[in-house]
Amino acid sequence: LLVNFQGKSEFNINIVSVDKIITKDANGNFIESNGETTYKSNVNPTMINIAISTSRTNNQSVLDAARTIMHEYIHADIVRKLYSTSNIPAKLDFKTEYDKYGNDHGTMASLYLQSMKEALKEFNKKMLPNDYANYTNYYGEEPSDAFYEALAWSGLKENNVKAWTDLTPQQQQNINNLAARVTQMSKTANCP
Fold first, then answer.
1. What are the backbone dihedrals phi and psi of residue 19, each rounded to the nearest 5 degrees, phi first?
2. Residue 94: half-sphere exposure toward Cβ, Cα within 13 Å
3. Is 160 helix (H, G, I), strand (E, B) or coil?
């Protein structure tokens, strides 16, 4: 995801930490969010802004905080694909696909969930090896692909995207149970 904004990209990313991010949920209720990505083409057509909530990430495991950042970068990648004036291969196909799912979260659940799962798995193994070992010791098994996919659902299932609501209640519960395991992971990490 980050590579898409390096070099000749027409977009820049501005990522900041803020104390709290308050947004509206699907029902119009104000809620605190982990992060928010905004794009205002009329203000700065080359800038995508990402804000990360420190009040939320300070209470998350490192892996969950990394998931939040990845989630927000996917929002930025969607903006890049939808609003680029340069020649992005298959841009029209992406717009058609995006319209099928109706919004960013629906698009993420359908088109990005698997790549996010793989990115979380790689990040956990390479950047958080102690966490990976601690998970294995605590649960008696290595983190599974299903665990990483359950993490990737965070931020999507709360928005009742079709891919989530199409799952059976048992599938949803299994995902929630696996995702809850992230709370057992470390809240700090040493820089490599």
1. -60, -55
2. 17
3. coil
Q: Which pair of structure tokens corresponds to residue 162?
A: 């079709």
The vertex-72 CA angle with 141 and 19, nearest 5°, equals: 100
Read off the pLDDT of each residue in 55-64 and give the average, rounded to a whole number.
Answer: 91
d(CA 96, CA 119): 25
pLDDT tens sequence across 112-139: 999 999 999 999 999 999 999 999 999 9
- For 23-86, what is the HEC assignment? EECCCCCEEEECEEEEECCCCCCCEEEEEEEHHHHCCCCHHHHHHHHHHHHHHHHHHHHHHCCC
- The reported pTM is 0.88
Question: What pLDDT, in 10s, does the model give residues 88-112?
Answer: 665 567 888 899 998 999 999 999 9
Instruction: Say how far apart CA 171 and CA 178 lie, in whole Å.
Output: 11
Dihedral angle of Cα 80, 82, 87, 89, to the nearest 10 degrees: 100
- For the chain, count helices (H), then strands (E): 9, 5
Residue 22 pairs in a beta bridge with 32
Query: Quick one: DSSP state of residue 180?
Result: G
| Strand-strand pairing, 12-18 and 21-24 | unpaired
Compute the distance between CA of residue 37 and CA of residue 71 in angstroms, rounded to an integer.
9
pLDDT for residue 37 is more than 80: yes
